[in-house]
Specification:
About 15% of the residues lie in helices and about 45% in strands. The chain contains two helices and eight strands.
């Protein structure tokens, strides 16, 4: 069963969004720069195991803030899968479509975006073993 493991909130003004989520909810926000994802801000909403980076509280998830884009205009929930390529084939067979193909995050895993038959954009995450 694919579980929800991450969320992303698109922003038009990252500084304004960081101020809002940090001050209102007490989230810890850390900017990251990556070739695959550009500027991305990790949003820590709950403590994690330092070795695995998995939340220590059952059911809790962390997420990120990203620049709003045409493909991701609204918040995105991300589902963990064993293999992104196979999951995208299943998405398409089920009536969905691929928005962004598999993109590697070195040392962490890979992500992709898809659109469900209702028009919602969601993410897929594959952890590096």
């Amino acid at each position: 069963m694919g579980k929800v493991v991450h969320f992303e909130i698109p922003t038009d003004d990252i500084a304004r969004a960081k101020e809002f989520y940090g001050s209102v909810f007490g989230w810890q926000l850390q900017d990251m720069q990556g070739e695959a994802m550009g500027l991305y801000t990790i949003a820590m909403t709950t403590p994690v195991d330092q070795e695995t980076q998995v939340p220590t509280e059952p059911g809790a998830i962390n997420g990120g803030l990203m620049k709003r884009a045409a493909d991701t205009p609204s918040p995105v929930i991300t589902i963990e899968v064993d293999g992104i390529d196979d999951a995208l084939k299943q998405v398409e067979a089920g009536g969905g479509s691929t928005v962004q193909t598999r993109t590697e995050i070195p040392g962490m895993g890979a992500f992709a975006y898809f659109k469900d038959p209702e028009g919602n954009v969601l993410g897929l995450w594959e952890t590096v073993p």
